[in-house]
Amino acid sequence: MENQSDHESRLHRIRHSAAHVMAQAVLEQFPEGKLGIGPPIQDGFYYDFDLPRPLTPADLETIKTRMQEIIQEDHPFELQDVSPEEARRLNADQPYKLELIDKLAAGEVDEDDEPMEEEVIISTYRHGTFRDLCRGPHVASTGELDPDAIHLLSTAGAYWRGDESRPMLQRIYGTAWETPGELQVHLERLEEARKRDHRRLGKQLELFSLEPDLLGGGLVLWHPKGGMLRYLAESFCKEEHIKAGYDLVYSPHIGRAALWETSGHLDFYRESMYSPMDVDGQDYYVRPMNCPFHILIYNSRRRSYRELPLRLAEWGTVYRYERPGVLHGLLRVRGFTQDDAHHICSPEQMPEEISFVLDFCLHILRSFGFEDLTAYLSTMPEKRVGEKPQWDAAQIALQEVLEKSGLEYKVDEGAGAFYGPKIDLNIRDALNREWQCSTIQFDFNLPERFDMEYMGEDGQPHRPYMIHRAILGSLERFLGILIEFYGGAFPVWLAPVQVVLIPITDKQLNYCWEISKKLKAAGLRVEVDDARDRMGNKIRKAQEQKTPYMLIVGKREVEAGAVSVRLRTGEDLKARPVDEFLAMPQSVIEARSKELIL
Predict the structure, then answer these.
(1) What residue ranges of the chain have pLDDT lower than 70?
(2) Would you please indicate which residues are annotated as catalytic (active-site) residues?
(3) For residues 41 and 365, what is the distance between their CA atoms, to the nearest angstrom?
(4) 4-196 has which CATH code?
């Protein structure tokens, strides 16, 4: 029986081969076209082209038809190693390929950062009339591909080599599988992802908007309902932090250049920072991170070992320059709020503090409904700051805590930041996609840079350990994930509007307003739909807004002092006394349940 790794390896070869077949089909349709690169990616492949005109949906159909013909022609994939001179001759009319050949010939590292051989040999693969620079692997021949298991999905713009100063190419995305059945499952998953897309739902549910033309790219406007969602998420987290012994702090959005020079950001992070502003003849920068401010709070006076561990938490908005091509709704923005915390402790307290942090992260994530979690432990890289005994103690503490937690975890050897090892917690959503959220990160760098100290029991100054910690990470990104996870149908405790009252006629409006006041007094978020519209349209609107409870009110309900309860799932619970209904959402909210009825 084929195991998972064998299956993934075969899919990789299939997708790589499909990319080459697609490139051949494109060049046959556009002989003057220029080739970029075309790798396999997760669930599919793409290829970049410089073409004489924009591609249309009809072009994709033509390309797909030609791909099917190439597959049926069953051309073998043939490996041929050539010299740089021969590679240049074969690609004389392909400027982007010539640029890659020059890099290879110059002995520069390849895309996988593997050192090149002293004698440069360039691998190419050929099938039929098409040849490409490529190290493989591929299937044996085009005939091994199933034409009914390949689909071209979309086109997009992509700068050559990801550089905005270089030409914009046209990228064709496709997907390829072993069988048509696998393709169909994937296409259904893509359709479900489209329905759950947080950008579409953000507009439909009136949660947020992006106004790049006037506001700028990557900056978010939260509308009232989105503002309520954000408030509810933040408020819950802040209350839990206070219960857990954190101190909440606030810090400015800007700081003098001297601060970022001390922290090292201007040396190592400048390209992701916005240009400075002149204030009283001094350069100030908007903050890309909150850490230096928390250290200044710690250093504001002498600290004793008796105060440790100190847990400083802030929902601090930061600003980072992201290239326009990578901005994506809430998932990749330029201004975002981090639920940052910094744990400052003695070396002896460090193992217990790590255990506390991991348990707290899991508690918060699970409270939002994320149960499928995987941890990644990133260990000491070759280039680092700090002493090896520090790294060893920190890595042992991280690994032991993971072992005790029972979480599935993977070790990523040598992938830690230069300033310390870390744990990343990834959540899996309703479409089985994995997202990185929480980070527990040691930092052996900033305590040295800022000369952090505490007076020990021995009366001598000691350097504390500092642990960076974010649970939700970027609040914007987390809410984007949350919107897609629930498809906008939030648990009752997070729903911006929990109840909508729908009168059958205007004669029931006064009764609806009275009930609304009673429900609001009990802590529920309530709207009354007083629009002049048919009841069926009002119900449909409430369902589209994914409101958990719809209370229909007609003459009989008014006479009985009741409401007719309908759930957003479409289930009709019939008429119930108002107090009986009131107990329903209250119990669900108290349990933070995903259900509408307990």
Answers:
(1) 1-5, 108-118
(2) 291, 320, 338, 340, 342, 422, 468
(3) 29
(4) 3.30.980.10
